[in-house]
Design brief:
With about 260 residues, the protein is of the alpha/beta class. About 50% of the residues lie in helices and about 15% in strands. A hairpin with a 2-residue loop joins strand 5 (about 210-215) and strand 6.
Length: about 260
């Protein structure tokens, strides 16, 4: 059986943005190709993330689509360089095109849900902070992914930064938990089969999946069937035993009032 070629997540994300910009401009692939003097198939390859385009092509394309700055920024962030640690950059890029995200956090609030002051207390550099804040745009892009978060209950009690930081963070969790495409649950601190630390799962519209598992020395992104089966089982286990969304929101409010107000 032929091995499926792995698509670079940065190129996949760049291609998805190009496709969205093209469609919003009301152009077909053939029409866009004619404007930038390439073949329709080349535009298709860029949009599918199976080829790495040059800067001059991205500049011509940005001009043609009326999105010069946005295409240039995407090319710089995704094709030329990455702003995330090497061990995390593949997963961070895949978040940008996922239709569903499932994240479990065992020790701190998930990065996509951190307020700026909380993230600043955790991160060492300003560039890391800005990269995390930019990454949070994933939750408000159009169309937004379905995002399911499970936080270990201890996260609500573990102080990061000042008491004011914790107040702001839990207030935000309480508010964001009511968004239509966000499912936030609190898991009582306990032993859960197959769960040994924080992990994330990103599902694409073609049902391809990738998982990221954190560790003390960084972490690992994997698309191996064995690893995906393990984290899917772990998330299902957590989801089944966690408080439901309404009860989780009420519990966040209770901890906020009792400990951080």
């Amino acid at each position: 059986m032929a091995t499926k070629k792995r698509i670079d997540p940065h190129l996949r994300t760049f291609g998805a943005r190009v496709k969205r910009f093209r469609e919003e401009a009301g152009l077909s692939q053939a029409e866009a190709a004619k404007l930038v003097a390439v073949t329709r198939s080349y535009v298709g390859q860029v949009e599918r993330g199976i080829t790495r385009c040059r800067r001059d092509f991205s500049e011509r394309l940005g001009e043609a689509l009326g999105r010069k700055d946005e295409v240039a920024e995407a090319w710089g962030d995704l094709v030329r360089s990455a702003k995330y640690p090497q061990y995390f950059e593949d997963y961070a890029s895949l978040e940008g095109t996922a239709v569903m995200l499932r994240h479990y956090s065992s020790d701190v609030v998930d990065g996509l849900l951190q307020v700026e002051s909380y993230a600043r207390a955790l991160l060492r550099t300003e560039s890391s902070l800005q990269a995390r804040l930019k990454r949070q745009e994933t939750l408000v892009r159009d169309p937004a992914p379905m995002a399911c978060f499970i936080l270990d209950e201890s996260v609500l009690h573990r102080q990061v930064g000042t008491r004011e930081v914790m107040k702001d963070q839990l207030t935000y969790l309480y508010e964001v938990s009511s968004r239509e495409k966000i499912c936030l649950q609190i898991a009582p601190t306990a032993y859960y089969r197959s769960v040994s630390g924080s992990f994330c799962i990103a599902t694409q519209d073609d049902r391809d999946e990738a998982a990221y598992a954190a560790s003390a020395f960084g972490g690992e992104t994997s698309e191996e069937a064995e690893h995906l089966a393990l984290v899917n089982e772990a998330f299902a286990n957590l989801q089944a035993r966690a408080r439901n969304v309404a009860d989780s929101r009420a519990h966040i409010g209770k901890v906020l009032e009792a400990k951080w107000m």
